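Hi Y.,

Following your request, here is the sequence exactly as I used it, all 203 residues.
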Amino acid sequence: QGCLVSDRTLWIVGERGLTRMPVGSAKVSAGVPEVHVEHVVVDGTETGFQQGFECLSGSRRMMLKFVVAAVEFPQQVYVRYRVDGYDTHWIDAGRDRVAHYTDLRPGDYTFRVAARQGNEAWAEAEPVRFVVLPRWWETRLFQFASLVGSLGLIALGVQLRTRRIRTANEILCREIQERARAESELRQRQEELARVSRAVSMG
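Below is the corresponding structure, written out as tokens. Let me know if you'd prefer a different format.
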């Protein structure tokens, strides 16, 4: 929140205490509140705030804290925010001056926060861009290697199964050939015995 005193000095209350801003240098109009992001906290640790800051995927909680300075009627200030790439619509901040996000997936995001006083037009702060970096098992290289490895295992399994089927077929073919040879030898012996029996009976 902010307060304008008689000497035209704007005092802003933030997480780090009071900040003094002359109205002339801040270029704050009476009807348009100023809003800007103050700092970012990831899993309880404050990060060095800058455009394009990075954090690792798997962070349980991210807080983006912002300050709204309204020179008149601060109780009539409305604030909304959103993260492009995650939110599908603006979120009403109410009286809070912090945006909470959990378990953001790897990717590029843009945080936007806007404020207005009464029915005035929305005044949007400079968008804050940040990147959620993937953990090593979420990288495209690892996923590609996993896919190649999985395909390799499938191919190996198919090859081993084909080899087992081929071996089983070869064994079956040998057994059939051996059985056919044995049956042929048995027929030959039977025919030979039959000839001998006819010869004996004729003699």
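The longest helix spans residues 140-202.

Thanks again,
Q.
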